[in-house]
């Protein structure tokens, strides 16, 4: 289970996330439940990496702010 996937903007974030994904959830041919929570889906590259690895959305959260 992965709770967050974020990399600093100064780094090669896509490569960092891809490496973490491979190490955290490998081997991908092993059948088991792999879950992630609080993944920021507005990053299209990271979302694509998780989709390509077989992850599918189950539930989404919405962050709302009320301004006065």
Please describe the topology of this protein.
Layout: H1 13-25, H2 44-52
Helix pairs in contact: 1-2
Explain how this protein is built.
The protein has 68 residues and is mainly α. It has a domain at 13-52. Helix content is 32%, strand content 0%. It is built from two helices and no strands. The longest helix is centred in the N-terminal third of the chain and has 13 residues, at 13-25. The chain starts with 12 loop residues before the first helix and ends in a 16-residue tail after the last helix.
Flag low-confidence runs.
none
User: Which bin fits the share of residues in helices?
Assistant: 25-40%
Determine Rg (CA atoms, Å).
14 Å
* SSE string, helices as H and strands as E: HH
Beta percentage is under 5%
Give the number of helices.
2
Question: What oligomeric state do these chains adopt?
Answer: single chain
What structural category do the secondary elements indicate?
mainly alpha
The 3D shape can be described as globular
- The overall strand count is 0
Query: What composes the largest sheet?
Result: none
């Amino acid at each position: 289970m992965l709770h967050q996937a974020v990399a600093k903007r100064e780094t090669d974030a896509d490569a960092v996330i891809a490496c973490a994904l491979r190490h955290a959830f490998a081997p991908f041919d092993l059948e088991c439940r792999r879950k992630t929570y609080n993944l920021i889906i507005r990053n299209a590259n990271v979302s694509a990496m998780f989709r390509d690895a077989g992850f599918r959305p189950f539930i989404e959260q919405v962050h709302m702010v009320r301004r006065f």
